[in-house]
Design a protein that fits this description.
Distance between the termini: 33 Å
CATH class: Mainly Alpha
Shape: globular
Oligomer: single chain
Structural class: mainly alpha
Radius of gyration: 12 Å
CATH architecture: Orthogonal Bundle
Length: 75
């Protein structure tokens, strides 16, 4: 199983959504996608509601979150 390279799909731009990580070419934040998944929406549900998104972009959001969790330092 190969992991999606989130850097291909996610950008941080101070001019878009106050610098929150967004899916490139959209104003949809990683947080938005993670919240939809956490609320029980499936990948296909998200793509149906937001046809500008792809399965790879959703997986990129998960990979981004996993990477953030991996690098968090506990004091």
């Amino acid at each position: 199983m190969s992991t999606v390279n989130y850097k291909d799909y996610i950008e941080v731009n101070p001019a878009v959504r106050f610098g929150k990580p967004v899916i490139i070419g959209t104003r949809i934040t990683v947080y938005d996608v993670l919240q939809w998944l956490a609320s029980g929406m499936g990948h296909q549900d998200i793509v149906a509601d937001f046809p500008q998104l792809s399965e790879e972009q959703i997986l990129a959001c998960l990979a981004y979150a996993a990477n953030k969790e991996r690098i968090i330092k506990v004091a």
